[in-house]
C-alpha cells in the first residue's frame, strides 16, 4: 500500500477521462456534442469540482474557450488516424500516447469500440486502473453484424479485463452478468444539467434523433397521422448509417402531413430551446441506453413518451411520461391525453424535475463516481 501511495503522488492526475470528441466543448463547435461527449465532459468537470486532479483526453482543440480552475487539464491526442495506411495500428498508437500523456492513476473510457482495446492494453501494461463506462445496451452486443468479428472478440476480452464495469441502468448490469458471470457491474446514473422549467406549456410533440433503422422514425410519422389535430416537429439527422430512401421518405411524409414539420439538424442549444416548447419528447427507438433526450426533457419538466424503451422502468415507476411497451395504440392514446390536458402535462413535468434533482443531478451522480474511485485506488 505504501508503494501505491508513493506512485500516486508522483503522477500528474488522479483520473483521466478518455473522450476525444469532448474537444468540441472547449472550441467553437460546442453545440454539436453528442450524448456520450456531454456525459463524459460533465463527468470530468464534476470530478474536478470535487477536488480530484482530472485530465480530459481530447482531440486537438480549435480556438479554445477560456478555461479556469474548474476546468480539468486538457490533454490533446492526435487527430483520428483510422483513415491512414495501417490506420488501426496508427490509431492504437495515438490512443496510447494520449493516455500516457495524461499520467493518471485511473482511466475512465466511455462507450464501446476499438478505443477500448487500446486503453485496456495500455492500462494492463502500465498497471493503471481501467474503468469502462457504458453508453448503450449495444456496448454489450458481441454479435453485431455491423462490426468486425475479430474486433468484437478483442473488445469483449478488453471488457473482461477492466477493473470496473460501470453501467447506466440495471438492464445493462444484467447484460454484463450474462456476458461475464463472474463480474459485478456498478450502476451509476447519467448526469442531467439543471435547466429552466417549461411549466406545462407546450405547442407540439418533438422527435429529435438520427435517421437510422433502430431509431424507427417511421413510427413517429404514424403517430402524427393518428392525431391530425395535434402538432408535431421532427429533427432528423441523416448520416452514413441512414438506410437508402429513409430521408426521402421522411421528407415526403412532412410534405404530405399538414401537422408535421420537419426541421434540419441544429446546434444542441437550439434543440434544447425547441424542447422547452414541447408537449412531450417522443422516442421511438427499438433500443437505447439512458437517452440524454429523456434527461434533458425531464430536467425541463417535459414528459417523455417512449414506444419501446424505459430504462429501469424510470418512466412508469416515477409517472414522468408513458412507456408504451411497443404498442402504437398506447403511444397514440398517451399523446392524445397529454395534448388535451395541460394540467396533466404540468403535474407530470413537476414530478420529472424532482426525479432529476434526486437521482441525476451533477451532485448526486458525482458522489457515486467519487465513491467508486476512492474504493480501490490501485489495480490488482
The unreliable regions are: 1-8
CATH architecture of the largest domain: 3-Layer(aba) Sandwich
Q: Give me the strand/helix succession.
A: HEHHEEHEHEHEHEEHEHEHEHEHEHHH
Rg calc: 21 Å
Kindly report the spatial arrangement of strands forming the biggest sheet. 3-2-1-4-5-6-7
Q: Write down the CATH topology of the largest domain.
A: Rossmann fold
Task: Measure the end-to-end span.
Answer: 11 Å
- What's the CATH H-level superfamily name of the largest domain? Glycogen Phosphorylase B
Give a quick account of the main beta sheet: strands, pairing sense, barrel closure: 7 strands, parallel
Mean pLDDT: 91
What is the name of the CATH class of the largest domain?
Alpha Beta
Quick description:
The chain has 380 residues and is an alpha/beta fold. It is 44% helix and 16% strand.
Question: Features of this protein?
Answer:
single chain, 380 residues, alpha/beta, Rossmann fold, 2 domains, seven-stranded parallel β-sheet, six-stranded parallel β-sheet, 15 helices, 13 strands, 16% strand, globular, disordered N terminus
Characterise the protein shown here.
This protein is an alpha/beta fold. The chain has 15 helices and 13 strands. Helix 9 links the parallel strand 9 and strand 10. The longest helix is centred in the last third of the chain and has 19 residues, at 342-360. The protein is globular, with a radius of gyration of 21 Å. The model is unreliable at 1-8 (pLDDT under 50).
Amino acid at each position: 500500500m505504501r508503494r501505491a501511495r508513493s506512485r500516486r503522488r508522483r503522477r500528474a492526475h488522479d483520473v483521466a477521462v478518455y473522450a476525444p470528441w469532448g474537444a468540441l466543448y472547449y472550441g467553437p463547435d460546442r453545440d454539436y456534442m453528442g450524448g456520450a461527449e456531454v456525459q463524459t465532459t460533465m463527468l470530468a468537470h464534476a470530478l474536478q469540482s470535487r477536488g480530484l486532479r482530472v485530465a480530459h483526453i481530447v482531440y486537438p482543440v480549435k480556438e479554445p474557450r477560456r478555461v479556469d480552475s474548474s476546468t480539468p487539464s486538457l490533454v490533446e491526442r492526435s487527430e483520428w488516424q483510422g483513415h491512414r495506411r495501417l490506420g488501426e495500428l496508427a490509431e492504437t498508437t495515438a490512443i496510447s500516447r494520449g493516455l500516457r500523456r495524461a499520467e493518471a492513476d485511473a482511466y475512465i473510457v466511455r462507450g464501446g469500440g476499438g478505443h477500448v482495446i487500446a486503453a485496456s492494453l495500455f492500462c494492463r501494461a502500465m498497471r493503471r486502473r481501467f474503468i469502462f463506462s457504458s453508453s448503450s445496451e449495444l456496448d454489450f452486443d458481441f454479435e453485431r453484424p455491423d462490426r468486425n468479428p475479430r474486433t468484437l472478440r478483442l473488445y469483449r476480452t478488453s471488457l473482461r479485463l477492466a477493473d470496473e464495469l460501470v453501467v447506466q441502468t440495471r438492464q445493462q448490469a444484467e447484460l454484463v452478468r450474462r456476458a461475464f458471470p463472474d463480474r459485478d457491474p456498478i450502476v451509476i446514473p447519467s448526469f442531467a444539467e439543471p435547466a429552466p422549467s417549461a411549466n406545462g406549456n407546450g405547442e407540439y410533440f418533438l422527435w429529435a434523433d438520427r435517421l437510422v433503422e433502430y431509431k424507427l422514425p417511421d413510427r413517429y410519422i404514424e403517430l402524427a397521422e393518428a392525431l391530425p389535430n395535434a402538432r408535431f416537429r421532427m429533427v432528423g439527422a441523416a448520416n452514413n448509417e441512414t438506410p437508402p430512401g429513409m430521408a426521402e421518405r421522411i421528407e415526403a411524409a412532412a410534405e404530405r402531413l399538414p401537422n408535421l414539420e420537419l426541421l434540419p439538424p441544429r446546434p444542441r442549444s437550439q434543440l434544447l430551446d425547441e424542447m422547452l416548447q414541447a408537449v412531450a419528447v417522443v422516442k421511438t427507438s427499438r433500443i437505447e441506453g439512458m437517452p440524454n433526450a429523456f434527461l434533458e426533457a425531464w430536467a425541463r419538466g417535459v414528459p417523455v413518451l417512449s414506444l419501446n424503451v424505459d430504462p429501469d422502468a424510470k418512466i412508469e415507476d416515477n409517472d414522468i411520461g408513458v412507456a408504451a411497451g411497443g404498442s402504437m395504440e398506447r403511444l397514440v392514446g398517451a399523446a392524445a391525453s397529454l395534448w388535451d390536458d395541460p394540467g396533466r402535462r404540468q403535474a407530470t413535468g413537476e414530478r420529472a424535475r424532482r426525479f432529476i434533482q434526486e437521482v441525476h443531478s451533477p451532485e448526486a451522480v458525482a458522489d457515486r463516481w467519487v465513491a467508486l474511485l476512492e474504493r480501490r485506488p490501485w489495480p490488482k
